[in-house]
């Protein structure tokens, strides 16, 4: 009998190889060295998001029908190829090509990894451990990103391109980890084997299952808010005059805070309960946006850390709600719907915030993003929370 718990350390390695990101802390500096600015940064990340959007739901369907292992292997290979392209590119459209490959690669991993984790635990009758394990894997990813920030700070002494060479090597570590995964039996009555069935299943799930619909929308809105904030951090560093060699150090500290809070996410939810956990995340993330926006100075780091601590709580808690309300045969698809919404929303708002950052002020970009999040998250969650009292 297969021991599906063996999948967990392999999922850790896939997460770490994806999140040990030595290039993210210096992307704005790298683009500036190639004649680009904040606006181009957000446009390129919007292109990445569109690539994810195009493949997100089809890749979730492929994971549910063909197997999560196969899509994780494909995603790992494409993730490595994207950084190889970046390593030898020097202008906008070449960077765009790399972002497209990376985006497609991510779409094959996102959703499939969480679905494989949940069904591995389900096969071993341990689904009650999901929030804890998702939190720990998320934490491992954030600790990896934190350490990568330090490494990035060391590598930029050679050149701003050196981290990309090393990033390619790290990304390839996911490939053998994906090949050695054990595919659990999906606990389903019927698989979704056609696009028509896929669309029907998504429609039925989202229309008839209010809990699932709200869980996906709330998790997606929060994911969009945290992704947007992450890309505003580098302009924040530039605006306060942070020395380039310290970008990686402060990036490390922020991601360590996410890693720490992710570990305790399940305990926080047990203590607060579902309703107060949801409200706390929405309020605190919004305050992080507002106060970071009015404190573009070294004092503003307090609010950056506040935001990142809450971000560490939000991801495993909200993902768990999606898993609780969905069935195994469409679990990867539903998680992909979440990621689809995140990338679609970011593709729409990202370039606007980049333009505001370059042409109006970083302050206004933070405040606008915060207002959009609190209005949207409140509109989605309040009716649901009232019924959950």
UniProtKB/TrEMBL annotation:
Pfam family, one: MFS_1
Highest taxon in the source lineage: Bacteria
Main location: membrane
Nucleus as UniProt keyword: no
Major facilitator superfamily (MFS) profile domain boundaries: 1-388
UniProtKB keywords: Membrane, Transmembrane, Transmembrane helix
Name listed for the protein in its UniProt record: Major facilitator transporter
Organism, scientific name: Draconibacterium orientale
